[in-house]
Amino acid sequence: MESIDVKSLPSGGLFVTGTDTEIGKTHSTAALLRALRAVGRRVQGMKPVASGCELVDGAWCNEDALALMTAAGSTAAYADVNPYALPTPTAPQLAAAETGAEITLPAITAAYRRLSADADTVLVEGVGGWLAPLSDTLDQADLVRALDVPVVLVVGLRLGCINHARLTERAVLADGCRLIGWLGNAVAPGFDTDGRYFEALRRSLRTPCLGRLPHAPA
């Protein structure tokens, strides 16, 4: 991991969103969890809604949620870390419809409170990009407001990332949410080896930079 300023992150909850899907939100959230543990914080990871799950001992489990539990050293109940485990690997609103599940805020906020009882900081990973809905009637901004937590943005470093990062920053702020920092994640091998895009992002975004993660093929 390259330098990440986790000491500046507030205690309590943090919501991790991204500029798109497949830009390393789980990888970045896990890195933040490990870094926070390294400076003495008690942490929990949470993936409230996850699509693309597998049956494990008769229960649906998601590999991203399990990765967050490992990074946090968590012994919490899986159902609290991932209240909505949806089998089909597609948009949550579609995956939930297939199973007849109704994604609601009370179920998520109750699980969040249980996780918070044993942690200094809970990192809550969202789905896809900021405007990817959780259901036909529920946006991720609704969840952030219900939890009353600030937002960290993961920027996937690849062609188009400046546009996507600026659009996401504007959307988060326009929704009245607190965006406290962004983290660059090198998702494309060989991209921006001279750091020009990363520095351009620093100049283009109003939000402080928390650091940068190198490319991790796995």
Q: Cα-atom Rg, whole angstroms?
A: 16 Å
Low-pLDDT runs of 5+ residues are none
Order of helices and strands: EHEEEEHHEHHEHEHEHE
What's the CATH H-level homologous superfamily of the domain at 12-49 and 104-213?
P-loop containing nucleotide triphosphate hydrolases
Strand residue content? 15-25%
Binding site for Mg(2+): 26, 64, 125
Family: Belongs to the dethiobiotin synthetase family.
Cofactor: Mg(2+)
Main location: cytoplasm
Short description:
The active site is at 47. With 218 residues, the chain is of the alpha/beta class. The protein is 36% helix and 21% strand.
Report on this model:
ATP binds at residues 22-27, 64, 125-128. It is found in: Cytoplasm. The protein is α/β, with parallel strands linked by helices and 218 residues long. The chain has eight helices and ten strands. The chain has helices spanning 25-38, 63-72, 78-81, 92-99, 105-116, 140-147, 161-174, 196-204, and strands at 12-18, 43-46, 49-51, 54-56, 59-61, 84-86, 121-125, 151-156, 179-185, 209-213. The strands form three sheets. A six-stranded parallel beta sheet has the order 2-7-1-8-9-10, sandwiched between helices. A two-stranded parallel sheet has the order 3-6. α8 (196-204) links the parallel β9 and β10 (209-213). The mean pLDDT is 94.
